[in-house]
């Protein structure tokens, strides 16, 4: 990577920020020491199944240090806007000290925005984004604003909107998605904490966290299951939704253990009733404002795969409707049926069709 700074200068820039959330490659072999590690971010980026961003306008809502904004720019986006306010307003070193202390003492933290370390006039938590943008000589624009409260008309509309790690932090997720739909021109990529209750996949529900039940964090409110996530997006005004990274395989060992554990507990008299165990995971939805795909990245063009796809399509067409819910294909690739029955190929997602 070409950079205007020496390795020593970049190391100094990385060190000058007390807390990094994202591990960002600043060039010359210098990586910021983020809580989200580089391998974790690489895997998360792959799971987003981003479309071709060349020439696109991209809005990254709740960008924090901006890893995904810089990644969109690196992929050739014409314009990228990083928007945030919440973590940018925090002295993050103080915040994480407080959060860890509450966790170790088993007490519920106060809402973070009521703490003295929440300083929206100074934006101490924006240092990482600002420093990374300087180091990368990036043209990513920044907007300081609460996406839930700000006037969205001034923001305009973007071809692709990223809404990553945010939905479960919202008190009102349906309203959040409605606001997201108003700024989305083509596609919103929504990544969120999600939940599955084995055996209840066909019901749409969200788990509610009154205080800090999820990860000791009082800023977590809701985790949808796959069906609720897709339904929320449609109810918010998106025309078409694909869950591109869904729940772990239904009959995986984890899912089976959770389901069997729940049943056993209910059948064992005298055993403390803890309720059914849920499977937690991160889901990714592609929510489209238009019926068409932005690109055909989900389709395979190699002849072997096309033959396999056509064989599977014909098996699928002959199945009774109730047999079409999930099909897992063993081997190198998994396949996905879109709502209208077209067969798409994905790399790592198990198949879901017509819920
Ligand atoms: C888990 S981080 C995700 C950051 C980044 N998008 C990513 O995926 O790595 C949550 C983001 O949501 C923002 N946010 C906005 N409103 C929030 C709220 N009420 N509670 C918690 N986080 C909020 C935070 O500032 C933070 O950037």
Give structural notes.
The protein is α/β, with parallel strands linked by helices and 355 residues long. The protein folds into two domains: 7-298, 3-Layer(aba) Sandwich (Rossmann fold); 299-355, no CATH class. It has helices at 7-15, 38-48, 67-74, 92-105, 127-135, 173-183, 226-235, 253-267, 303-318; strands at 20-22, 25-27, 30-31, 34-36, 57-61, 79-84, 141-144, 158-164, 184-196, 206-208, 222-224, 240-245, 279-288, 334-337, 343-346. The strands form five sheets. It has a seven-stranded mixed β-sheet. Strands 1-4 form a two-stranded parallel sheet. β5, α3 (67-74) and β6 (79-84) form a beta-alpha-beta unit. The radius of gyration is 22 Å and the shape is globular. The site of S-adenosylmethionine (SAM) has 11 residues, from loops. S-adenosylmethionine binds next to loops.
């Amino acid at each position: 990577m070409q950079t205007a700074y020496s390795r020593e200068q970049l190391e100094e820039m990385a060190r000058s920020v007390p807390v990094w959330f994202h591990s960002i490659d600043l060039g010359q072999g210098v990586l910021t020491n983020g809580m989200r590690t580089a391998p974790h971010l690489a895997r998360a980026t792959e799971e987003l199944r981003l479309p071709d961003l060349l020439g696109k306008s991209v809005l990254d809502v709740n960008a924090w240090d901006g890893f995904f904004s810089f990644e969109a720019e690196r992929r050739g986006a014409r314009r990228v806007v990083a928007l945030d306010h919440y973590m940018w307003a925090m002295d993050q070193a103080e915040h994480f000290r407080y959060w860890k202390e509450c966790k170790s003492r088993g007490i519920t933290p106060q809402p973070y925005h009521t703490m003295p370390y929440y300083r929206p006039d100074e934006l101490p938590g924006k240092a990482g984004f600002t420093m990374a943008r300087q180091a990368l000589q990036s043209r990513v624009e920044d907007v300081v604003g609460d996406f839930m409260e700000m006037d969205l008309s001034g923001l305009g509309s973007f071809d692709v909107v990223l809404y990553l790690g945010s939905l479960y932090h919202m008190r009102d997720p349906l309203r959040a998605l409605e606001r997201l739909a108003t700024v989305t021109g083509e596609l919103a990529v929504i990544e969120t904490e999600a939940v599955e209750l084995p055996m209840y996949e066909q019901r749409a529900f969200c788990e509610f966290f009154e205080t800090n039940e999820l990860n000791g964090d009082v800023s977590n409110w809701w985790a949808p299951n796959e069906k609720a996530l897709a339904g929320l997006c449609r109810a918010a005004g998106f025309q078409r939704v694909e869950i591109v990274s869904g729940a772990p395989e239904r009959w995986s060992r984890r899912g089976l253990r959770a389901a069997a554990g729940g049943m056993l507990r209910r059948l064992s008299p005298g055993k403390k009733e803890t309720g059914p165990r849920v499977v937690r995971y991160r889901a990714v939805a592609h929510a489209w404002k238009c019926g068409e795909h932005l690109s055909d990245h989900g389709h395979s063009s190699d002849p072997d795969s096309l033959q396999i796809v056509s064989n599977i399509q014909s098996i699928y067409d002959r199945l009774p409707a109730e047999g079409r819910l999930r099909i897992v294909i063993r081997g190198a690739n998994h396949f996905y049926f879109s709502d209208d029955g077209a067969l798409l190929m994905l790399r790592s997602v198990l198949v879901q069709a017509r819920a």
